[in-house]
Amino acid sequence: MTDYIIRASAANSQIRAFAATTRDMAEESRKLHQTSPVATAALGRLLTAGAMMGIMMKGEDDLLTLQIKGDGPIQGLTVTADSKGRVKGYANHPEVMLPASEKGKLDVGGAVGNGILRVIMDMGMKEPYIGQTKLVSGEIAEDLTYYYAASEQVPSAVALGVLMNGDNTVRRAGGFIIQLMPFAEEETIEKLEAKISEIDSITALLDKDMTPEMILEHILGELDLEITDKIPTGYHCNCNKDRVEKAVISIGRKDIQEMIDDNETIEVNCQFCDKHYNFTVEEMKEIIKKASK
Ligand code: ZN
């Protein structure tokens, strides 16, 4: 696995930072879902964010879900990440094609449209934590910056980028999240803001062969950067027949009974990895028995 995330701090822990290279993850997602270039970029950005936000969670079994719902043609994106760098996701309409934006870039904002970003953290409590903000641009990094400011009151700089090859495979993907702690001093904030305003886009940095370490060094090098951890990350789906069975149960007794009556084997596809699971009539009868217990 060549994808990884680094965790770092700077300015005597007044700043915490994460940076990731996620080319393989974004390419794996593109292959699995056969995404169009704009959908590859949208999903690749959200997967990269999910990977970094996932490892911010402390518990072994903690789960993060990022949901985007918009009125653009892609309609929605869902990403789930655990605290160990494993992520998966899907786009509601992976086939969406749009003309490039005025700057000649893939129009992720246009594909997503106006809507909401929801962050769900399941940390083994009775109720999961749910934060929700409106989308600012649909470009995802800006939407997450706004989410952090409005919902968690953490001033953050978020950059996410996916760059394609001529044949629409993923050439580069990655990003960073840099956050100011509540006790950050005015001087630190000013230095960081000045630096962020002068750096190139994340895709430009990645395309100069810059590693996550180099990117953070570039931004935070003058602020006593300290890299504290390096975590492998990648696309990973943990579906199995038991989990899919639960989805079948949720269809409801009546519909399952109808399928049994029609004597049909049903095929269920995992949304995250497109693996097929077949349920025979006999298996569906068992499911009904279990469901009625
Ligand atoms: Zn799966």
Brief overview, please?
The protein has 293 residues and is of the alpha+beta class. It folds into 2 domains: 4-235, 3-Layer(bab) Sandwich (Hsp33 domain), CATH 3.55.30; 241-292, CBS domain Like (Alpha-Beta Complex), CATH 3.90.1280.10. It has helices at 23-33, 37-54, 108-112, 141-151, 186-198, 202-207, 212-220, 241-249, 253-261, 281-291, and strands spanning 4-10, 15-21, 63-70, 76-82, 86-91, 115-122, 129-134, 156-164, 170-180, 226-232, 234-235, 266-269, 276-279.
Q: Any overview of this molecule?
A:
It is a single chain. With 293 residues, the chain is of the alpha+beta class. The chain is globular and about 70 Å long. The strands form three sheets. Strands 7-6-3-4-5-11 form a six-stranded mixed beta sheet, with helices on one face. Helix 9 (253-261) runs antiparallel to helix 10. The chain contains ten helices and 13 strands. Strand 12 and strand 13 (276-279) form a beta hairpin. The chain is 35% helix and 29% strand. The protein folds into two domains: 4-235, Hsp33 domain (3-Layer(bab) Sandwich), CATH 3.55.30.10; 241-292, HSP33 redox switch-like (CBS domain Like), CATH 3.90.1280.10. It has helices spanning 23-33, 37-54, 108-112, 141-151, 186-198, 202-207, 212-220, 241-249, 253-261, 281-291; strands spanning 4-10, 15-21, 63-70, 76-82, 86-91, 115-122, 129-134, 156-164, 170-180, 226-232, 234-235, 266-269, 276-279. The structure holds zinc ion.
Topology:
Layout: E1 4-10, E2 15-21, H1 23-33, H2 37-54, E3 63-70, E4 76-82, E5 86-91, H3 108-112, E6 115-122, E7 129-134, H4 141-151, E8 156-164, E9 170-180, H5 186-198, H6 202-207, H7 212-220, E10 226-232, E11 234-235, H8 241-249, H9 253-261, E12 266-269, E13 276-279, H10 281-291
Parallel strand pairs: 5-11
Antiparallel strand pairs: 1-2, 1-10, 2-9, 3-4, 3-6, 4-5, 6-7, 8-9, 12-13
Zinc ion binds next to loops.
